[in-house]
Amino acid sequence: MNAKTIALRLGALALIAAGFALIARAQDGLPLPSPVEKELAARATDVTEVTLDKNMLGFAAKFLNDKDEDEAGARKLISGLQGIYVREYEFDKEGQYSMDDVAKLRAYFETPEWSPIVHEHERKSGETTDVLIKLVNGETRGMFVLAAEPKELTIVLILGPIHPEDLSKLGGLGGLGALGNLPGVHQAPQDGKDKTGKPGDKKGDDE
Amino acid sequence: MRRIAFFLVCFLALIVPVVVLASGGEGGFDGVVHSIERGYHVHATRIPFMGLVSFISGGATHGGVSNLHVAEFDNFSAPMDGEDLTRMVEQKLGSGWQRVVRETSRGGQEQSLIYMRPEGSRMGLFVLDSDGNELDVVQVSVDPDHLNDTINQYSHHRNSEDRPD
Question: How far is B107 from chain A (nearest CA, A)?
Answer without folding.
Answer: 7
